[in-house]
Amino acid sequence: MERLFRAFWYLSVIIVFFGLVYSFAALPEFVQYLEGKEAVNKDIYFYYALAIVASSNFVLYAMARKFITSSSSLTLSNVLQSWLYALNSSLNLFFFVSLMFVMMHNSNENWNYEMLGYGIYATIGLIFICTLSLPVLIFQANNNK
Questions:
Q1: Distance CA 103, CA 1 (A)
Q2: Contact indicator for 31, 102 with CB cutoff of 8 Å
Q3: Whole-angstrom Cα distance, residue 101 to residue 105?
Q4: What mean pLDDT comes out for the span 98-107?
Q5: Could you tell me which residues are beta bridge partners of residue 41?
């Protein structure tokens, strides 16, 4: 199961970085990321978004690599490693949807934000479900000893 979560995490990293580059290309010179706030330079927005995505991926990946085991059984370290990959994947999907929202908000085109709102709610729900699953997974791994 850990390999499946790791493969999905790799895919989500590729998706979020391509989404970052795509949204950067479509943004105007000054980006407004909040209503009523002052717009920031496109480059500053890009580098802040890159730093947030890269640092969150690095931290969670480094934590997951600490739980390396050669066993394929349902041990606590395997469960924690799989959970960290799943959490990282869901965060990457949230980052991707957020980047697309900022891109659409700054676009001159007329977009239907309702569908993107469902995507934001779905990714927040996925993060919430992933977070709530940790105690259940730990309890299950401790009972399998």
A1: 35
A2: yes
A3: 6
A4: 89
A5: 30
Instruction: Of 64, 26, 71, 68, give the one whose Cα is nearest residue 45.
Output: 26
Q: What is the CA radius of gyration of the chain?
A: 18
For residue 70, is pLDDT > 70? no
| Cα 91 to Cα 14, 47, 86, 105, distances in angstroms | 13, 18, 9, 21
Rounded to the nearest 10 degrees, what angle do helices 42-65 and 76-105 cross at?
Answer: 170
Helix (H) or strand (E) holding 74: none
Q: Encode pLDDT of 110-129 as tens digits.
A: 877 778 889 899 999 999 99
Helix (H/G/I), strand (E/B), else coil: 75? coil
State the first-to-last Cα distance of the chain, in angstroms, to the nearest integer. Answer: 18
Listed residue (11, 34, 26) closest to 104, CA to CA: 26
Residues whose CB falls within 8 Å of the CB of residue 116, separated by 6 or more in sequence, listed in order: 97, 100, 101, 104
| Cα 141 to Cα 74: distance, rounded to the nearest angstrom | 6
> What is the distance, to the nearest Å, from the Cα of residue 40 to the centroid of all Cα atoms in its chain?
23
CB atoms within 10 A of CB 53: 21
Taking a C-beta distance cutoff of 8 angstroms, is the pair 110, 103 a contact?
no
Q: What are φ and ψ of residue 21, in 5° steps?
A: -70, -40
